[in-house]
Design goal:
The protein is mainly β and about 170 residues long. The chain has two helices and ten strands. It has a five-stranded antiparallel sheet, with no helix packed on it. Strands 2-3-4-5-10 form a five-stranded mixed sheet, with no helix packed on it. A hairpin with a 4-residue loop joins β7 and β8. The longest helix is centred in the N-terminal third of the chain and has 18 residues. The radius of gyration is 20 Å and the shape is elongated.
Length: about 170
């Protein structure tokens, strides 16, 4: 049965579409800043580089590069609400290192996440402290496993020469 108010249905649909789109770029945890952005093909698809500071380890900054789909790509593929979850990471000491109250277990803790679709897909950065090697390990990964393989990238920041300060005392090596 057709609605007697087709414009009202279209308006409601556009309102819902706008609200859902506004929710897409949700980021959590660490402070981040876009430091670079450029187009990599004629359709306007681009790469975006973010500088992300670890909220509990001052003096370490991770640079994350990921894909930003263009309007042309979204129109041609018919998938408006999803960006690829391909990302690469490089982390470095960018100042005096002060290590706060971090998770010391093998699972580490999430320091950043960004939604790449409306529902299930996101990328995240997790920090793990490698005690035997006195090194911070940062892993960026996709939360959407596709074809039994999650996309990952890794970066490490050795602390042995950083003269790091631990606010709760440095944990003993295992």
């Amino acid at each position: 049965m057709r609605s007697p108010f087709p414009l009202m249905n279209a308006s409601a649909g556009l309102l819902v579409l706008g609200l859902l789109t506004a929710a897409l770029p949700l980021r959590t945890a660490a402070a981040d800043e876009v430091v670079g952005r450029f187009s990599n093909d004629w359709t306007g698809n681009g790469l975006e580089i973010q500088a992300i500071e670890d909220p509990k380890v001052k003096g370490i900054t991770c640079h994350l590069v990921d894909f930003d789909r263009s309007l042309i790509d979204r129109l041609s593929k018919g998938n408006w609400f999803e960006d690829p979850s391909n990302a690469s990471i490089a982390c470095r000491q960018t100042g005096p290192v002060t290590v706060g109250d971090i998770e010391l277990s093998q699972k580490g803790e999430e320091v950043f996440s960004e939604r790449k679709s409306l529902i299930f897909k996101s990328i995240a950065i997790r920090r793990i402290y490698d005690r035997p090697n006195d090194t911070m390990v940062y892993v960026v990964y996709s939360r959407q496993v596709k074809d039994a393989s999650a996309k990952t990238s890794i970066s490490t920041v050795p602390l042995f020469s950083a003269n790091a300060t631990w606010t709760k005392g440095k944990p003993a090596a295992k």
